[in-house]
Specification:
Blueprint (H helix, E strand, L loop, with lengths): L2 H40 L2 H8 L2 H20 L6 H18 L2 H5 L2 H24 L7 H22 L2 H29 L7 H30 L4
Helix pairs in contact: 1-4, 1-9, 3-4, 4-9, 6-8, 6-9, 7-8, 8-9
Length: 232
Amino acid sequence: MNREGLYKAARPLTVESDFLRSVYNWMGLGLATTAIVSFFTASSPSMLALIFGNQLVFFGLIIAELVLVMALSGAINRMQASTAALMFFVYSALNGVTLAAIFIVYTRASIASTFFVTAGTFGAMSLYGYTTKKDLTSWGSFLFMGLIGIVLASVVNLFLHSESISWVVTYCGIIVFVGLTAYDTQKIKHTASLYLADPEAGKKAAIIGALQLYLDFINLFLLLLRVFGRRR
C-alpha cells in the first residue's frame, strides 16, 4: 500500500479516536463538576438545610435536572455547541447539589472506594464496547426494557417498602448499567465518522455522548454504593 493509501486508512481511525477522546474529556469535566459541587454542598450546613430540609427546593432541583436532560437530548440539533456545553455543566452542577446526600448517609472512605470500583468497572466495559467486533445493537432493546422495569419496580416499592424488592432492583440495575456502558460506547464510536465534515455537529455529538456515559457512570456508582457503601 502506498503512502496515500495508508493515510486514507489511518484517517478514520484518527477521527474516531479524536472524537472518543473529546467525549471522555467532556464526561470527565462533568463528573469533576458534580464531585466538586457535591463536596462543597455537603460541607455547608446551611446549604444542606436549605436543600434537604425543604421538600419544595429538593424536588424543584430534581425536576430542573430532568428538564435539562430532556431539553439537551431532544433539542441538541437546534442549539449551538456552546449552549449545549453550558446546559451540560449546569446539569452536572445541579446533580452535584442533590448528590450531596450521599455524604450524609455514607462514610467518605466508602464513597471513595466505591468510586474507584465504579471507575474500574466502567472503564472495562467501555473498553469492551470500543474494541469488540460484536454488534451490540441487539442489547439496546433488552437493556431499555430492563431500565423501564427497574423504574417501575422502584416506583412500586415507594409504597411497599420491601427490602427484598430494593435489593433485586439494585442488582438488576447494576447489570443494566454495566451493559449500557458497553452499548453506549459502541454507539458513540459509530457516530464519529458522521460528523467528520461538520465540526459544530461533532462538538454537539461529543457533548450528548458524554451525557449518556455520564448518566451510565453516575447510576452505576449510586447502585454500587448501595452494595459497598458503609453507612454512618
